[in-house]
Design goal:
Elements: E1 9-12, H1 18-30, E2 35-36, H2 38-41, H3 48-57, E3 61-66, H4 68-73, H5 81-89, E4 98-102, H6 114-119
Parallel strand pairs: 1-2, 1-3, 3-4
Length: 120
């Protein structure tokens, strides 16, 4: 496991999408990137929210795996990802550091919220 200061990427995802996310994280890791992936990098005896907060602070970029499950969990509560990251890390996160990865998403899907945003 890399030193906290060494994380290139932080993976943010819905737990239900872990199969897909694991494949992406493994590929990035094989290519030399240090990716914080909570499912893999959780440390026994350390409170997960604290571990995530420290990893957020120590990451350069944030992979946002956008799926219907993540949208249902966060965006439907009007909590933008940058706000979520800022709350957890107690810092400002620049939108330029967020890398969205669309997974199993139809932008025109009812309830997605993105179709309405595009129409405006």
């Amino acid at each position: 496991m890399p030193a906290i200061e060494g994380w290139h990427l932080f993976a943010c995802y819905a737990d239900d999408d872990h199969d897909f996310v694991t494949g992406v994280v493994e590929e990035l890791t094989n290519r030399g990137y240090q990716v914080f992936y909570a499912r893999r990098d959780n440390v026994a005896g350390v409170v997960i929210t604290e571990r995530i907060r420290v990893a957020l602070v120590g990451s350069s970029y944030y992979l946002l795996f956008l799926s219907p499950r993540l949208v249902a969990r966060y965006l439907s509560r009007s909590l933008a990802f940058a706000e979520l990251v800022s709350q957890l890390a107690n810092q400002q996160v620049s939108p330029e550091t967020i890398i969205p990865i669309w997974y199993d998403m139809n932008l025109d899907q009812e309830g997605c919220g993105l179709a309405a945003a595009r129409a405006a």
